[in-house]
Design a protein that fits this description.
alpha+beta; 6 helices; 4-stranded mixed sheet; 132 residues; 42% helix
Length: 132
């Protein structure tokens, strides 16, 4: 699974630049593989991002702004959702990835709302652990 972060390399907004740097820096520091998709330099990237951000995650007016985060083609969220997941030690669940051994805790997306820890691993791994 590949994490794709849609960014704008030539954004005039310092807020957008800082958010992009925050997401990319976190992924790099935690050795989470990702692809940067530049919507400023590539019209196909811009079009794909705009078409694949779900309706309920789009702003009331205008287009979704970077950074936007996907796991393959599955939308995972924007900067605010990423930030909340990071604050709750739930980035791996937010990204749809299995947390590495030794991580503090693993939360499912629904558990992020309830703030209750869930077992780490893929669904099959969790079931195997529960049956053991």
């Amino acid at each position: 699974m590949v994490i794709r972060v849609y960014i704008a390399s030539s954004s005039g907004s310092t807020a957008i630049k800082k958010k992009q740097q925050d997401v990319l820096g976190f992924l790099e520091a935690n050795k989470i593989g990702f692809e940067e998709k530049d919507i400023a330099a590539n019209e196909e990237n811009r079009k794909w991002m705009r078409e694949n951000v779900p309706e309920n995650s789009r702003p009331a007016t205008g287009y979704p702004l970077p950074p936007q985060i996907f796991n393959e083609s599955q939308y995972r969220g924007d900067y605010d959702a990423f930030f909340e997941a990071r604050e709750n030690n739930a980035v791996y669940a937010f990204l749809g990835l299995t947390a590495p051994p030794g991580s503090k805790k693993c939360l499912s997306p629904s558990a992020m709302i309830l703030r209750s820890p869930q077992p780490c691993g893929t669904e099959a791994e969790v079931q195997a652990k529960q049956q053991a």
